[in-house]
Write a structure and sequence with these properties.
Membrane topology: Multi-pass membrane protein
Distance between the termini: 23 Å
Structural class: mainly alpha
Largest sheet: 2 strands, antiparallel
Keywords: Cell inner membrane, Cell membrane, Membrane, Transmembrane, Transmembrane helix
Number of domains: 2
Pfam family, one: IspA
Number of strands: 2
InterPro entries: YciB
Organism: Paracoccus rhizosphaerae
Radius of gyration: 19 Å
């Protein structure tokens, strides 16, 4: 992946989501007949999204020879819950998927705090060198952030329209993540480590 052109990674990461959004907007409010079954625009977009994400993930694995645990977990949950939505022709399963992902991530981060393990630093240490106290604070904040995202997803999909949820999923979540990372800039500065010290700290 490091030797490929810089635009390839964001295309592979965000391409399937943008495709989902485009297909939903194109077929919103319509019925699409696939294999003799009538699907809503939302279910049809989900049907397109699943293989797109699978292909994208396989290409990323082929280019870099590795996948992050988050990518693997996301792919598995998309296949399982997206597949259930298509199989049962019920959008609720796919809408529930982000809640499960965020609760899972929050639980993993919470476990790392209880066990006093720097799992977040092991994953992000090369890109973001922090001391152990910095990782502890960031882990706690990120766990709470993921819990908040899970609650937000539940509130939106249970009370608002499909279109609102799709906008939230496609644009709202990335914006919230960006704002979270930006909002922790002070923590990054206060607990920054020199590159060599960071390598020793996460080893």
């Amino acid at each position: 992946m490091d030797k490929t052109k810089p635009w390839i990674k964001p295309v592979l990461e965000f391409g399937p989501l943008i495709l989902f959004f485009a297909v939903f907007m194109l077929f919103r409010g319509q019925e699409v007949i696939v294999w003799g079954e009538a699907y809503s625009g939302f279910i049809f977009a989900t049907l397109v999204f699943i293989p797109a994400l699978l292909v994208s993930t396989l290409i990323q694995w082929w280019l870099s020879n590795k996948l992050a645990p988050m990518q693997v977990a996301t792919l598995v949950l998309v296949i399982v819950f997206g597949g259930m939505s298509v199989w049962l022709n019920d959008p609720r399963f796919f809408k529930l998927k982000p809640t499960i992902i965020y609760v899972l991530f929050a639980a993993i981060l919470g476990a790392s705090l209880v066990l006093r393990r720097n799992w977040l630093g092991a994953v992000l240490g090369e890109a973001l060198p922090l001391d152990l106290e910095g990782w502890r604070k960031l882990t706690l904040r990120m766990a709470l952030f993921f819990l908040a995202l899970a609650v937000a997803n539940e509130v939106i999909w249970r009370n608002l329209s499909d279109t609102t949820w799709v906008y939230f999923k496609t644009f709202g979540l990335p914006v919230l993540l960006f704002l979270f990372l930006l909002g922790n800039a002070g923590l990054y500065r206060a607990h920054a480590l020199p590159e060599k010290a960071a390598e020793d700290d996460t080893a």
